[in-house]
Amino acid sequence: MITKEHIVQWLEKVATVIEANKDYLTQLDAAIGDADHGANMSRGFKKVMSQLPNVADKDIGNILKTTGMALISSVGGAGGPLYGTLFMRAGMAIDAKHELTGEDMITFLQAAVDGVVQRGKARLGDKTMLDALAPASDAFKEAIEAGEDSVEALRKAVAAAEQGKKDTIPMLAKKGRASYLGERSVGHQDPGATSSYLILKALLDTVTAGD
Predict the structure, then answer these.
(1) pLDDT at position 179 over 80
(2) CB within 10 Å: which end of the chain, N or C, has fewer?
(3) Domain positions in the chain
(4) Are strands 99-100 and 2-3 parallel, antiparallel or unpaired?
């Protein structure tokens, strides 16, 4: 069971992890984008941290929606609307809950993926954050439906996201700034898929912290 406390700790961990990987994300983005993904995500999660104390005692849906709004208002480029929509949709899908079952997490992840697809109009294989998020969502759902618990399902989701992130390297970018480069986008890992993996890995690390 993933609790409200886990979600608050997760967002705090994401802020730390993004800050630690800010330069790495910027290097990835320098190869195929505007070289600002690290700085943008760092700024966004600093804003989330400034808002979190106001909603830490609220339900999970409220916390996630507030996170999404903070990202939309503070992150430049495509990342703000995409990550903002991801958290807003996830928050709406699990509104008023204080803990999440495996089934709730399936709903959470699917809503996040659907939000990104709707906002970014990307498909699998377009070399975007979706290439990490969609396999993670599918792997989580398969694990829960096979009778595994949320933590084990999350392990599989993170492994799928990690593989999805690596799979973007040989892809030709079809969306976003990277798509302007055509063939030159091949051979570079997508920064959005990388930050998506880092965010999911932070959730796994949070829920397994006491193990």
Answers:
(1) yes
(2) C
(3) 2-207
(4) antiparallel
